[in-house]
Amino acid sequence: MVKFNEVIRIKREALMLTQEQFAQKMGLTGSVISSFENGKDISEASIKLIKFTIKDLEQKLTDEEIGPYKLRVACEMAIADDNDESRKEKLRTVCFSALKWSDTIDQKKRGNWV
Asked: DSSP readout, 33-95?
């Protein structure tokens, strides 16, 4: 089972935000986010703020952004939840291919197909 702090890291990275950028959206410091993602205790108020901010950012994703975001999160969650290194490597390969395919489809939809 993936720990909550890992879920937040995965979602933050899938939103393509650094710890500092994510922290700024909440008026926190990057060190608070770093501490939390590394499993250190932070205040309950900060945890609630982090949950709210993630949900708010997810709701603001456009139709084009939501699919790749969900795919990134699903892939990273599966990788984080698996203890077998050889399966993790296979999952990374499959996920990378799926994300590449997703990007290609998005480019085609936008008329950027080469």
From this structure: HHHHHTT----HHHHHHHHHHHHHHHHT--HHHHHHHHHHHHHHHHHHH---HHHHHHHHHHH
33, HSE (Cβ side, Cα atoms, 13 Å): 26
- Give mean pLDDT, residues 45-72: 91
Q: What is d(CA 31, CA 6) in angstroms, rounded to the nearest whole number?
A: 16
> Which residues, other chains included, contact 8 with Cβ-Cβ below 8 Å and sequence gap of 6+?
36, 37, 50, 54
For the segment 14-33, what is each residue's pLDDT rounded down to a tens digit? Answer: 999 999 999 999 999 999 99
